[in-house]
Protein: ROK family protein
Organism: Streptomyces cellulosae
Amino acid sequence: MPSTSPAETFPAHTPAASQIFTTVLTHGPLTRQEAARRTGLSPAAVTKAVRPLIEAGFLVEDAGAEVRPGLGRPANPVRVDGGRALFIGLKATGDEIIGVLTDLCCRIRVARRVPLTGRTPREVLPVAADLVRELLTEAEGFGVQVLGLGIAVAGDVDRAAGTVRFSPFLDWHDVPLAALAEEASGLPVTVDNDVRALTVAEQWFGDGVGLSDFAVVTVGAGIGCGLVVHGRVVSGAHGVAGEIGHVPVVPDGPPCHCGDRGCLEAVASDPAITARVREVTGVPVADAAEAVALARAGDAGARAVYARAGEAIGRGIATVANLLGPARVIISGEGLAAYDLFAGQVRDAFAAAAFGSAARCEVRTRPLPFEEWARGAAATAIQSFAGR
């Protein structure tokens, strides 16, 4: 991968500028008065923070949309110029790398998928490098600079260190991914757990905008959970906050790869469901798609497996609601392709297990293609660029 010229940095490295920029990015357009109200900053501090962002072209003032004139201070709304910069996001699975090129507002401009022929860093990194090169070439057509690269990987990821401590699907251990990617690309690189990255995208650009407390639960190859508490994505002291996939939900249930029994992931992940359908029905379904088709065809055993999975997911979501009291839980992931087979069980189990006012938590489904996971990686790069 050819090195790029040094990436432009955020024009005003102050907490106020970062706060104003992200507030306008996620809630804008906003007048300065509205931005002051949302951030708790003084009008003078807002004006000081906005000025260099406008001068650098990251914020623009909509002079033709004047509202509520103020005394001596412009009342025109300001908004982020999404076309001012581009970002790249990569999501690595065990089988492929999905890459996207987004603008500053995290809108996908280009998306690509590349298959993997192996899973070791030696095999994956050159494929990722080629994909970044391709997206950088695509970016040239937009005439603006790529200012960051985000990479999302399942497993235990130390974002601060840029290290993949352990990824079960890739079988990686202590891979300094950010340093390797920065050396190859010349771009600032952010590496994060894929569910946390998706949660950042939901917080800034999706169904979590405006919520100080919510969770994202993903169902599919594994079961993941991203947590936002008091407006911040929580990773915990050791980076593994939200591991509900390994919360036991079925006493004496099936063994889990973590060594325990009855974990949510051992009951409700796609591989667990597929294996259980084969066991119960005797039909040699090869993957989740075939298991879904069998259940939709009316096979009672297969439908019972999905019903049990739905109950387990509902109990897992209730655990999150009982512990943290989020306003909303967003269910996503490729496992939602089968949601019609267990939606009722999720709702019923959640209602039965949620304690008191925790039952008021809104449970919302949000089917997302895999490109959205890569978009989550781009969102973390945008977040890092803005100093958040």
Summary: The chain has a mean pLDDT of 92. DSSP finds twelve helices and 15 strands in the chain. The first strand starts at residue 59 and ends at 61.
